[in-house]
Amino acid sequence: MSAAPAERVIRVSAVVVTDPSGRALVVRKHGTAVFQQPGGKPDPGEGALEAAVRELLEETGIVADPASFTPLGMFRDAAADEPGHTVVADAFALTLPGPEALAGAEIDELRWIGEGDVDATPLAPLSRNQLLPLAWR
What's the CA gap between 123 and 28, in Å, rounded? Predict the structure, then answer.
């Protein structure tokens, strides 16, 4: 009997960004077809919150005080762009005073979506199943 293959895990930090009208920010990275929350892999020695703050700035130009992020917990789902991998995200919430974001770094497109836009938006499993429902609870 052979051992089961080890789970291939991708660790990231993700930010559920909302604006006062209740829309959530999603981004689509270069070379991908689905949208997800801003975020990414922590650099060596970087904590989850530090990575969230840095990735949000790099991907959207949003400068936010780390104290304004609310921890949401750790979530896992199938990775959108790496077949056979699981993404495990330390997630944080951030509410902005207005929808000020610009596509930067590796971002091709960003969108502000409402709860009614989810079905028509191609979304990563982690975003669709775990993170976006938190934006509208």
Answer: 9
Strand partners, 15: 92
Q: From the CB of residue 14, how many other CB atoms can be counted at a distance below 10 Å?
A: 27
Q: What are phi and psi of 95, to 5 degrees?
A: -105, 125
Q: Strand (E) positions, 53-106?
A: 70-78, 85-95
Write the DSSP symbol of residue 22: S
Torsion sign across C-alpha atoms 26, 31, 34, 36: negative
Q: What CA–CA distance (Å, rounded) separates 137 from 125?
A: 18
For the chain, the structural domain boundaries read 13-131
Tell me the fold of 13-131.
Answer: Nucleoside Triphosphate Pyrophosphohydrolase (3.90.79)
Instruction: Give tens-digit pLDDT for 84-113.
Output: 899 999 999 999 987 788 898 799 999 999
H or E, element range at 40: strand 39-40
Lookup: tokens for 4:
């089961």
The overall pTM is greater than 0.90: yes
Coil, strand or helix: which one is 49? Answer: helix
**Do the Cβ atoms of 27 and 101 come closer than 8 Å?**
no
